[in-house]
Design brief:
alpha+beta; Arc Repressor Mutant, subunit A; Enolase-like, domain 1; 3 domains; 3-stranded antiparallel β-sheet; two-stranded antiparallel sheet; 10 helices
């Protein structure tokens, strides 16, 4: 990575600021006029050319101004963006909102993405926590219709998996609830290997259901991240790129 001079860092910051505000290529003269820079337009052009050669800026077409590249944005966020603290009142309000959610992971994620979008006035995207190795926590079995049963499984960390099963014969809700309780009591806190070891202690129905539990845990293990949460898209449409 090229080492930027203090003047190049300043110009890169100003260009990113102006491009974010106007969504138009930024020229040397506009920078000098807008920020009353103590340097000539020619000097700014030379520095912008150097930043372009290093990959921090690009020129959409000949005679146009410059726009930041992905490398430029990354350098700005990692090295130039100043840390700012939220006001105490805002931090207390956010803490209180999370406290009200208690231990509901899904609600925490929805609140987190909403707060992030609100404070940044932009779109926000987050992923729920995703354990490297799924650990079984709890299972519920709900009779729906005939031989169909809804299995709801919760993993340690808050990952919730649902699956509609078709059993060999209709079973009462009492029988399903008893079986779910046995599986939970026996296997809570276990990983896939431990569950396979414990499975023989269950009856035929329990072992059949555990096979589906294992399938869902394997599916969870194969995922790269947890559930995605998105908010703040409406903030994007007020940006200059979308104005008419």
């Amino acid at each position: 990575m090229d080492i930027l001079t203090e003047r190049q860092k300043l110009l890169l910051t100003l260009i990113i600021h102006e491009f974010a505000r106007e969504a138009m290529p930024v020229g040397s003269k506009s920078l000098v006029d807008q920020f009353s820079l103590d340097m000539s337009s020619a000097t700014v052009r030379n520095e912008m050319a150097a930043l372009t050669e290093m990959g921090y800026l690009r020129q959409p077409h000949t005679s146009a101004g410059r726009v930041p590249t992905e490398i430029g944005y990354r350098f700005f966020v990692g090295n130039l963006l100043q840390n700012t603290d939220l006001p105490d009142s805002t931090r207390h309000m956010i803490s209180h909102q999370f406290y009200q959610m208690r231990h509901d992971v899904d609600q925490w994620m929805r609140l987190a993405v909403s707060v992030l979008a609100s404070q940044s006035q932009s779109a926000s995207l987050i992923t729920a926590p995703h354990a490297e190795k799924p650990i079984f926590k709890h299972v519920e079995l709900i009779s729906t219709r005939g031989r169909q049963v809804l299995m709801v499984m919760v993993l340690v960390g808050g990952d919730v998996r649902q699956r509609l099963l078709t059993l060999g014969e209709p079973l009462s809700q009492d029988r399903l609830s008893q079986t779910a309780e046995k599986i939970t009591n026996l296997m809570a806190g276990s990983d896939i290997t431990e569950i396979r070891t414990l499975s023989p202690q269950l009856d035929t129905l329990g072992r059949e259901l555990v096979e589906w539990v294992i399938e869902e845990m394997l599916s969870s293990a194969s995922e790269q991240s947890g559930e995605l949460y998105l908010d703040g898209l409406s903030n994007v449409f007020v940006e200059p790129e979308f104005t008419t």
